[in-house]
Design brief:
The protein is of the alpha+beta class. It contains four helices and eight strands. The protein is globular, with a radius of gyration of 17 Å.
Length: about 180
């Protein structure tokens, strides 16, 4: 049953594009929509380091997010709520793998990323990775209030990269450190 629920959540992640990212910083809470791509339950988005959400994540890696559609009928509502931590991707290997997945999901992005000076902010954008620790899936299409939860720390479903990989500058990085 756990695998079926995890698969349902994974399929939902795969078929959606926009995540509402919530962070907290010196000016308080902040929410912003970002396009994303996922590898397993790891969720990646591209953003400039000077955005409010990126600055907040640099100070505090704890975050929450939701993925849903704009439903006109409450009986059709589906969506994922999650919380976890985010880190700035420094691994060349991880960046390459994410780029391939991103171009597959968003073919038009290839042109944008190949000509970054033509699009404001793209040349300064960096990959961020969200590692969810807890997910809740709501599915009113099955039954009003239907929901189930998944704690990824308790499962082997999470798609993991090696903890220590070569970063862009050649140093080793650890993803277990928090910015809090």
């Amino acid at each position: 049953m756990m695998i079926e629920k995890a698969q349902l959540m994974h399929d939902y992640l795969e078929t959606h594009n926009t995540l509402i990212l919530s962070t907290y910083g010196q000016d308080g809470p902040w929410a912003t929509p970002v396009f994303y791509v996922n590898r397993g339950f790891r969720i990646y988005f591209l953003s400039e380091l000077t955005t409010i959400h990126s600055c907040n994540l640099q100070q505090n890696s704890l975050m929450a997010a939701s993925i849903t559609e704009d439903y006109g009928d409450f009986r059709k509502i589906q969506g994922i709520q999650l919380r976890g931590h985010a880190y700035l991707v420094n691994s060349v290997k991880e960046t390459a793998v994410v780029l391939v997945a991103y171009f597959k999901k968003y073919p038009a992005a290839k042109h944008i990323l190949q000509t970054p000076t033509s699009f404001k902010g793209v040349s300064k954008a960096r990959w961020h990775c969200i590692i969810p620790e807890f997910l809740r899936f709501t599915d009113n299409s099955r039954k009003f209030g239907e929901r189930f939860e998944l704690k990824l720390g308790d499962t082997m479903i999470q798609d993991k990269f090696d903890i220590n990989e070569d970063s862009i500058d050649g140093s080793k990085t650890s993803r277990n450190s928090s910015h809090t």
